[in-house]
Amino acid sequence: MRVLVTGATGYVGSRLVPLLLDAGYAVRTTTTPGEEQPWWSERVETVEMDILDEQEVSAALQGMDAVYYLVHGMGGDDFVEKDREAAQHVAAAVDQHGVQRVVYLSGIVPDAPADELSDHVTSRHEVEQILSGTSATTITLRAAVLMGSGSTSFEIIRQVSERLPVQTVPDWMNSDVQPVAVVDALTALAGALTVDSATRHYDIGGPERMPYGDLLETYAEVADLKRPQVEVPLMPTDLVGSLTGVLTDVPAPTVEALVESLHHDMVAAEDDFHRDLLPEGHELVGMEEAIRRALPDPRENDPSHPENADPMGPMPQDPAWASGGSGEGVGERAAQAVRSIADRLVGGS
């Protein structure tokens, strides 16, 4: 089977490609001009593609049996429009070239009225609908928090926990979340390529669900950090997003987009992905184990042999802000964050 992986140099894609190669698939990946080539690049065919260029998308999908859609916008005023346009280009190329299967990694869609969903969640769902309307069998995997070094959500949890001596938890952040280890998500993504199914979505989650505050607490315990929690009432969502963006090295628009989703439970509605997408006997990684495996010092990994590294830990393609970030200027940023909280809570500017 000939498989195209879009977003192949991203967090999930860079870990998925070697898994597909080891399974015997012929893999084509997309890249952009000037992008650093990953350690597995000599084993794949690589084509340059701007996903907003309809002709380049069509050329990339030509001759493919299946495509992984692993790209999405996270910030900026027009990310919803760009996500829609990108999905429409891929959908048109799928129909044009007779691609048989599309696998899309999306996010959990909370059980809430549409007008209460964040732009981030709404956009992901719209992309799913566009891809599901093609002639191909489209399998969408909806995940909440991916646990692993380099994952955006995990890096936010790690950096906030390590940089704030006291965890300030908004009173509205008591919704449940069901994190999933990236190694389990990767196994499910690989399984989605061959599952005998019509077009549908699967919710994927780990073996535990917990409130966000408990997830922060679990991280602190595993990382051996003493981080008392203080519940803060009446803290606006946009303020939490802005302050979290200040305190972490993760791009601020990405942080703010994710924080918008914290008002609702982000849990799997059903667990049939375990039966359909994972090998028989596969055991899901629990949260404490996932955190422990994500925490090794990146200096412990041998950069000359990334093929032997645990995908839960740091990998060569991870962004500069991963593995805990640099922490540069965090003291001043933390002070700025505290001042901003105080100003907003007393009605200041």
TrEMBL record:
GO terms for molecular function: protein-containing complex binding. Residues 296-308 have a biased composition (Basic and acidic residues). Pfam families: NAD_binding_10 (PF13460). Residues 7-150 form the NAD(P)-binding domain. Residues 296-336 are annotated as: Disordered. It comes from the Bacteria. InterPro entries: ComplexI_NDUFA9_subunit, NAD(P)-bd_dom, NAD(P)-bd_dom_sf. This is Uncharacterized protein YbjT (DUF2867 family). It comes from Marihabitans asiaticum.
